Amino acid sequence: MGVKNDGGLPKEAKKILQSLASAWDDVIDSSTLEVIPIKGAMTNAVFQVNWSTEKGKLPQKVLLRIYGEGVEVFFDRSDEIRTFECMSKHGQGPRLLGRFPNGRVEEFIHARTLSACDLRDPEISALIAIKLKEFHDLHMPGPKNVILWNRLRNWLSASKRLCSPDEAKAFRLDAIELEISLLEKELSGENQNVGFCHNDLQYGNIMIDEETRSITIIDYEYSCYNPVAFDLANHFCEMAADYHTETPHVLDYDKYPGLEERQRFVRAYLSSSGNEPSNVVVQQMVEDAEKYTLASHLFWGLWGIISEKVNEIDFEYMEYARQRFQQYWSSKSVLLENSKDVAEDGISGCALGLMVAWWTDFGRWQARLGSAALILGIVGNICIAFLFFPVARGSSVSQLIGLTSECSVKYQIWLGHIVMTLFTAHDLCYIVYLATTDRISELTDHTI
Question: How far is residue 355's CA from residue 366's CA, in Å, rounded to a whole number?
Answer without folding.
Answer: 14
